[in-house]
Amino acid sequence: MKKQIKKFSALLVANVMLVTALAACGSSSDKETSQGKGTETKIDTAATDTSGEAADASKPDTSKKVQLVWYLLGDAHKDTPKVVEEWNKMLEKDLNVTVKLNFTTWTDWMTKYNLMLASGEKVDMIFASSWADYYKFANQGAFMPLDDLLPTYAPETWKSVPEQDWKEATVNGKIYAVPATYPEYTPDGIVYREDWRKELNLPEIKDLDSIEAYLDGVKKSKNVTPINGKAYNEIFTMFKAYNNYQQIGGDSGVVVAKSYDTPRDIVAYPFTTEFEQWAHKMKEWKDKGFWKSDTLSDQKEAGDAIKTGQGAVYWRNAPGAGGYIMGLQTSNPDIEMGYFPFSRFNNLTMPTLSVNNAMAIPKSAPNPERSLMVLDKLRNDPKYYDLMNYGLEGTNYSVDTTDSKYIVSPPAGTPKDDKEHTAYGVASWGYRVESMERVKQAGGWPGFDALLEEFKSQSKPNIFAGVLMDYAPVKSQQAAVNSVIQQYGMPIMMGLVPDVDKAIANYRKQLEAAGVNDVMDYIKEQANKYFDSQGIK
Question: What is the pTM of this model?
Answer without folding.
Answer: 0.76
